[in-house]
């Protein structure tokens, strides 16, 4: 009997792809081109790149840059996600040269750029409808159909059982990497497209250059051979429920974090967000009601395991949800949220404990006597360490923490003072107050 070269019981890594090295401590910024300026074009974006870099942004995610369909268009301006031409650039945003200039400018600022890619469907007037009608799903009446069970009547859905479609879509995605030197993709409703398609695409893109791939999905399986990062809708929902007093920290710990640290692959990266283009209920009347809760949730989402996202205007204290199918420029103003992000991102870049995925330290719970109100944890990596204490409630609290494993001298992130920690820490915390202590081994 021939013995195998290795034991069948040897642990195997679940994630088989490798994220680019520059993703290790990166942050994300979703850029809504249409609303980013009065002009809503590529040239105006270049003017703010220095500010975004200073805030600590590393990866610019551009919402779809392609021409938008006219048939069944929603609103006056239409949806970014109703793609008329996968090889074209929306003339409302500028020319091909303008786009090249923007990509070069992003790279010159030491940042990276990913494109929003819509592989699941097209507009009704995409040229593929006439040229390859067999690439689309049909209804029982043998007519083109929108995404099933959703009210997206401005688009029609592809049928990925067609090999020619897969070849076309793969070539189109390679085109933007090869010609324009983009650094990856955010893929719209990625779980609606067969996973074997994404696995092949990732392999072919990586042959061109190392790419960063973000899936609009929460599926663990997408991390195996396709995507570096996936959405964290579960976290978004729980944080909003806490702000509305519909649940508490115990739910966050037991319904989310326990599963995250036990089941989710460490090499996979979850994207943590407070807002994005279709999840932005902190704005409007709720912003004034939840301002302090928003800051506390922001601190948690940046310092916990995962890659943090900022949505256009969020750092300016946007007090409304941006229109999606109409022009609705952001009113840019100085706001303490931008200063908060700048402080948090600076620590994330320097302290390995906060790095992304397997590059960073695991979240370990610090026990306290008010577990229904106060979230407390530590992350540690290669001598770097961060302790986080957040009162995620509207009530003041005096909490006692077991810091017997964390005795040392730390720097208070927001006060800049040194603080000695002994075996027990007692904090008198105001509603939504947060304390962050760190040590960086430099």
Topology:
Layout: E1 28-31, H1 42-46, H2 49-55, E2 59-62, H3 96-108, E3 112-117, E4 121-123, H4 127-131, E5 155-157, H5 163-180, E6 184-187, H6 195-208, E7 212-215, H7 222-225, E8 229-231, H8 233-243, H9 249-263, E9 269-273, H10 285-303, E10 307-311, H11 336-350, E11 364-365, E12 374-381, E13 384-391, E14 397-402, E15 408-412, E16 418-421, E17 424-429, E18 434-439
Parallel strand pairs: 1-2, 1-10, 2-3, 3-6, 6-7, 7-8, 8-9, 9-10
Antiparallel strand pairs: 4-5, 11-12, 12-13, 13-18, 14-17, 15-16, 15-18
Radius of gyration: 23 Å
Percentage of residues in strands: 15-25%
The shape is globular
Detail the poorly predicted runs: 283-287
The secondary-structure class comes to alpha/beta
Q: Helix content range of the residues, please?
A: 25-40%
Largest sheet: 8 strands, parallel, barrel
SSE arrangement, N to C = EHHEHEEHEHEHEHEHHEHEHEEEEEEEE
Characterize the structure shown.
The protein starts with 27 loop residues before the first strand and ends with a strand. The strands form 4 sheets. It has an 8-stranded parallel barrel with strand order 1-2-3-6-7-8-9-10. The protein has a 6-stranded antiparallel beta sheet with strand order 11-12-13-18-15-16, with helices on one face. It has 11 helices and 18 strands. The chain is of the alpha/beta class.
Give descriptors for this structure.
442 residues, alpha/beta, eight-stranded parallel beta barrel, six-stranded antiparallel β-sheet, 18 strands
Question: TL;DR of this structure?
Answer:
By secondary structure, the protein is of the alpha/beta class. The protein has helices at 42-46, 49-55, 96-108, 127-131, 163-180, 195-208, 222-225, 233-243, 249-263, 285-303, 336-350, and strands at residues 28-31, 59-62, 112-117, 121-123, 155-157, 184-187, 212-215, 229-231, 269-273, 307-311, 364-365, 374-381, 384-391, 397-402, 408-412, 418-421, 424-429, 434-439.
